[in-house]
Design a protein that fits this description.
By secondary structure, the protein is of the alpha/beta class. The protein folds into 2 domains: 115 residues, Rossmann fold (3-Layer(aba) Sandwich), CATH 3.40.50.1000; 64 residues. 42% of the residues lie in helices and 10% in strands. It contains 8 helices and 5 strands; from the N terminus they run βαααααβαβαβαβ. A 5-stranded parallel sheet has the order 3-2-1-4-5, sandwiched between helices. Helix 6 links the parallel strand 2 and strand 3. Helix 1 packs across helix 4 and helix 3 crosses helix 4. The longest helix has 13 residues. The N and C termini lie close together (7 Å).
């Protein structure tokens, strides 16, 4: 598909979600979820996975416990297990070209941030693997905010670190909770699924 993402004229900063937006990591995350949750007798399917897009892993595991009531399931411990499992395969991450190109084309022209529901260790490593860690001016992760997506906190903190008013920030997202978070923050948003 030869669509090009056009930036609205009032854009003064770009904020990218990472997983499924800037980096094609979703298949690897899905495998890690299935492997870890399978040990607790949970059949984690794509429908559940897609409903969680952008939501930090901690709250996801709390929801898993409430929904499936597995035995010996500590959400915090299982969240760590899942992230550790994912981290083993993180080097497989590839950039999502159409979104990655927007970042590359605008590097040095306006402030660029990333706002993710992932933890800092994984987010930093993903940016390194796809080669943009030195092109991002701000990184806000699940470790930096009390309320993850769909709350606006992640993106508002990112705008603050970039020194740009929310209404002049353009967010790139692939998940419904992230799109809701961007709108709640008063930001412009691109649903990257429209271009993939």
């Amino acid at each position: 598909m030869d669509k090009k993402i056009q930036l609205p004229p009032k854009t003064k900063a770009l904020i990218f979600d990472i997983d499924g937006t800037l980096a094609d990591t979703m298949p690897t995350h899905y495998k890690a979820f299935r492997k870890v949750l399978g040990k607790y007798g949970i059949d984690f399917n794509e429908e559940i996975f897609n409903s969680f897009a952008g939501v930090p892993v901690g709250p996801q595991m709390v929801m898993m416990k409430e929904r499936f009531k597995p035995e010996n399931f500590d959400p915090e411990t299982v969240a760590r297990e899942k992230e550790d499992e994912y981290y083993k395969s993180i080097d497989q991450a590839k950039p999502i070209e159409i979104v990655y190109n927007v970042l590359i084309d605008n590097h040095g022209k306006m402030p660029i941030g990333c706002g993710t529901g992932g933890d800092r260790r994984i987010a930093t490593r993903t940016l390194e693997v796809i080669g943009v860690n030195n092109k991002v001016n701000a990184l806000v992760t699940a470790d930096d905010v009390e309320n993850g997506k769909p709350a606006p906190d992640t993106f508002l903190k990112c705008a603050e670190q970039l020194g740009v008013e929310p209404e002049h920030c353009l967010v790139f997202e692939d998940g419904k909770p992230g799109i809701e978070a961007a709108k709640a923050a008063g930001m412009m948003v691109v649903d990257v699924n429209d271009y993939l």
